[in-house]
Amino acid sequence: MKKKMYLVTHSYEIDDCDEIKIIGIFSSKKKAVKAVKKLKKQKGFKKHKKGFEVGPLLVNQVYWDGGFFSY
To answer: Model-level pTM?
Structure first.
């Protein structure tokens, strides 16, 4: 069985560009949510509280298995 972790990201739009931050990877959803609650009180995050996402990830799992191109 693969181990599940929780990825926390934060994103918002500024000047028509997406700003995305990887906040951290946590061993439980409870720890991830606790980190988000703490960060929502910090400078910058206060104005963009809705930008947080907590999502499960499986360790040793490929999530992007194709190539990409740039404009």
So the answer is: 0.83
